[in-house]
Write a structure and sequence with these properties.
Order of helices and strands: HHHHHHEEHH
Shape: elongated
Number of strands: 2
Radius of gyration: 26 Å
Structural class: mainly alpha
Strand order of the largest sheet: 1-2
Oligomer: single chain
Number of helices: 8
Helix content: 55-70%
């Protein structure tokens, strides 16, 4: 942060003594080993999908891919985007990755069977987190039902009289109070 303030001060004061070592985390220093963020993300996904073993060897390879930049948020974003594209495209996983994926699914299913109360709490937490989005998507807004929405069509069914305590009035109250 200090280097940013110094750079701004130097710019405003006309000083030529600008810190050339400062690099914004989304900028990439052009070097002989320069790789774009997209390339780094794709290389990370390729390394994981083709790994024969998980462990130190894979971790070392991943660290080598990002070594020049470090594990920054912009690299993580590109990695997740590349991984999503690979999954959507039906990328062939190495045997190790396939086994890990299948084991994770089995463990999750076993956990759900052994701890139904926890799974219920997690599901309710997810519902609460997404409820404001769902309420708004249905057309229950802060100022009333949105014209042409599901909420407006539902309100029209009441022919001008919405009963107190009805599900519609509950959703509308949520739409007026909840914002994501």
């Amino acid at each position: 942060m200090a280097s940013v303030l110094k750079a701004i001060f130097d710019c405003l004061s006309g000083s030529n003594d600008v810190d050339t070592n400062y690099v914004h985390e989304k900028q990439v220093v052009l070097s002989p080993n320069y790789h774009s963020a997209d390339t780094i993300g794709a290389d990370l996904v390729n390394a994981i999908l083709t790994a024969e073993k998980c462990g130190k060897e894979l971790q070392t390879k991943l660290d080598e891919i990002v070594s020049e930049y470090g594990w920054k948020e912009w690299i993580a974003e590109k990695f997740l985007a590349s991984l999503e594209q690979a999954v959507k495209a039906g990328a062939k996983m190495a045997q190790t990755m396939k086994e890990a994926f299948e084991r994770a699914i089995k463990e999750a299913a076993d956990f759900a069977k052994e701890h139904p109360a926890y799974v219920t709490l997690i599901a309710l937490g997810i519902l609460v987190a997404f409820a404001p989005v769902a309420i708004e998507a249905l057309g229950f807004a802060e100022l009333g039902p949105v014209e042409g929405s599901f909420a407006a069509a539902w309100q029209a069914r009441y022919a001008g009289y919405v009963p107190k305590g009805s599900l519609f009035s509950y959703f509308q109250r949520l739409g007026m109070k909840w914002h994501y």
